[in-house]
């Protein structure tokens, strides 16, 4: 049972009736298995909040069935999916500026009696 990369806020894991393995979403099953997901009327879930398993009859599904029977976690919610973002990886430059390149010229502070480059102008 691993965290889904397709649905970021999955509240339950679902047991696939075909291979008896746990998945957060149908896409995770499709990516890792060599067979199609079998449909079933009775589904087995594990709540990610209380870690307890429960079954639901999908032919007689009501609004009250959207909650875990053990801890009342609302597991039927709008899915958050990963969105592509263009940005720079790293910490906030206002706090830690080590990732920024300093384009200024460095001044050579080493002076010598034999350095006449300043006097030639």
TrEMBL record:
SUPFAM superfamilies (alphabetical): CHY zinc finger-like (SSF161219)
Keywords, sorted A to Z: Metal-binding, Zinc, Zinc-finger
GO MF annotations in UniProt: zinc ion binding
Annotated PROSITE patterns: ZF_CHY
Residue ranges that the Swiss-Prot or TrEMBL entry lists as coiled coil: none
Entry keyword rRNA-binding: no
InterPro entries: Mito_Tim_assembly_helper, Znf_CHY, Znf_CHY_sf
Pfam families, alphabetized: zf-CHY
One cellular component (GO) term of this entry: mitochondrial intermembrane space
Gene Ontology biological process terms, A to Z: protein import into mitochondrial intermembrane space
Boundaries of every CHY-type domain copy: 1-73
PANTHER family: CHY-TYPE DOMAIN-CONTAINING PROTEIN, ZINC FINGER PROTEIN
Name of this protein: CHY-type domain-containing protein
Lineage, broadest ranks: Eukaryota, Fungi, Dikarya, Basidiomycota, Agaricomycotina
């Amino acid at each position: 049972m691993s965290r889904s990369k397709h649905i970021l806020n999955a509240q339950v894991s679902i047991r696939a009736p075909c291979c008896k393995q746990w998945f957060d979403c149908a896409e995770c099953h499709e990516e890792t298995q060599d067979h199609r997901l079998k449909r079933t009327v009775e589904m087995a879930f594990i709540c990610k909040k209380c870690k307890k398993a429960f079954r639901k009859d999908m032919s007689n599904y009501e609004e009250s069935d959207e909650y875990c029977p053990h801890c009342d976690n609302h597991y039927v919610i709008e899915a958050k999916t990963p969105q592509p973002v263009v940005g720079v990886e790293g910490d906030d430059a206002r706090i830690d500026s080590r990732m920024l390149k300093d384009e200024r010229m460095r001044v050579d502070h080493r002076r010598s009696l034999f350095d006449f480059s300043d006097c030639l102008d």
